[in-house]
Amino acid sequence: QSALTQPASVSGSPGQSITISCTGTSSDVGGYNYVSWYQQHPGKAPKLMIYDVSNRPSGASNRFSGSKSGNTASLTISGLQAEDEADYYCSSYTSSSTPYVFGTGTKVTVL
Amino acid sequence: EVQLVESGGGLVKPGGSLRLSCAASGFTFSSYSMNWVRQAPGKGLEWVSSISSSSSYIYYADSVKGRFTISRDNAKNSLYLQMNSLRAEDTAVYYCARGPLGTTLTTYVDYWGQGTLVTVSS
User: Do B108 and A36 touch (CB under 8 A)?
Assistant: First the structure.
């Protein structure tokens, strides 16, 4: 099972909105509503930001939102803030022999 | 407060073995599936293994199948990962992570430990 494909980097200025894409196949992203997104600051454990495509857990900022179209999921960060600078990973349940897969990761830079 | 604390990491030679532990607190451990996720230095996240709440369902990544064994002891609120035939490419920080309540599938993980570093080198 290959990792889901994400852009290596995305950047934006404070206050702007940015979107990170996560592309898979019909066996993972496109086949199930089980896409989640994680934020990881350097040297820290990841933090769940979105689950089941568009649900936000308690503790996650409402500036983060998720969506999906076909085999591509997206994470949008609105009102970008300096604290949003981190690595972001998508993940999905998959029907392959490895039942859970992460994306390649995206480094978000706040200019 | 949910807490997951990993232990057991360290330096091991190729072909060697290591057992990781994860002590859980702050929630009803026996009701949740649990996972191990790893991250090689400077690399991305890789899901390793998951175990359902009653240990009835166990899954592994292809990269560790046949070498790693996940287990849990609900009476001790503990999760384990027995790692055998270790290779250089198994070098990583290993995270213990909680899955969803009452399911056999890992569809997301909502709490993570701080991780324990495993280094495989001669």
Answer: yes
